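User: Hey, my collaborator sent me this sequence without any context and asked if I could get a structure. I don't really work with proteins. Can you help?
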Amino acid sequence: MFSEVGNVLSGIIYELERNDVTPDSLERLQPVLVNLALLTEDVHDIFVYDAQGNWLVTSLAASPPGANNADREYFIHHRSNPSAATFIGKPVISRSSGFWIIPVSRRFNDADGQFAGVVLATIKVEHLKQVISEFEIGQHGALAMSSNEGVIMVRRPFAMADVGRTIAGSAIHQASLTQGWGTLETPSPVDGVERLVSFRHLKNHRMLVAVALSKHEMLKNWRATTYFQTMWILVICAFTGLAGAYVIRAVRERLQVELSLSHTRDELTHANARLSELARYDGLTALANRRYFDEMLDKAFAQSERSGEALSLVMIDVDHFKRYNDLYGHPQGDDCLQKVAKAVQSAGRRPRDFVARYGGEEMTMILPDTDLQGAAVVAEAARSAVAELGLAHAGSSIGHVSVSVGFALYLPGQNKQGPGDLLKAADSALYKAKEMGRNVVSF
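Assistant: No problem. I've predicted the 3D structure and written it out in structure-token form, which is a compact way to encode the shape of the chain:
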């Protein structure tokens, strides 16, 4: 309906903006407006106002002298808003006919793009009333069309007092502000009847349509059907209970067995997952273990070959750890290894960096896509992180726990090497660091 009226307005505006607005052009336009009003079922009357709100031409037989609509909401909207969109206003009483009408209007401009006036088509509220009366909503249902601001344009059941009434702040209006469509169960803000309400915003217009069906009417047939079906079910259940007690007992026993098996299966799945986790990680330091390290090194090496990215491997050894155990005991040594492991792990900050316990007091780091400079930075970060722990070590020449670090770099395509060659190179660098006096990094 509103789209059809909008198309009528578009045609009139096209004629106004194409030609100069002169008395002759307006005289030729008047019979066109009359025909459009007669042929378009939804349109009651059509008006054209100038930039001051004066009546220029109308579908009426005669225009009252000095008529002016500059005070109307739609005129004020178009005068201050450059949008060419169709505007649907609040219901008002027509000054020309005395009927309640819905104003549908559009702005038109002059040759310079400035505001030149408004074209208005009116829809009688009575016509909207007839349109919505054709929908089947039951005896206690309701159907309403309102503006986005919550002003009712027409409602069924119809009451003249409801025209122009606002439902702003109601549950329906609040829900419509946050979503384009929806359904909710709520008392009507107009008559208080509990209904199931479905609402939707019109796609191209600032309007809200809500259809509400009485909860009692919706459930009436369902209740009757449910009662009938319930009686038959009770009869069938009674017969089944008498004739199949043995079968029911057997089914219950089978269900109990299946539930028990399902519980056992879940426990086994959980245990397998836990065992898989334990098989990959070191129980003391929580780092990846040697077996997991070997897997990840092979994968990282293969990935480096495919992508052409550099691959670095860092080997770390806690200096004089045997002396530490002899001086402080194995429990204290375990605590020391845990703290060192956390410090080393903090140096590998990227998601693909991999830290593992290689064995005893040795740890290792796989650094994918890391060149010589990057590996040196990470290796030094690991050494510094352990030194900053400040763990006392009377058996060390520097008085605290330290680590020696060696690292090696693999560049794909430059030589024929394997993961084992890279591991040997990093291990050699580690021994070189020890020969250099420990607590140092060597390449």
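In plain terms: The chain is about 45% helix and 20% strand. You can pass these tokens on to your collaborator as they are.
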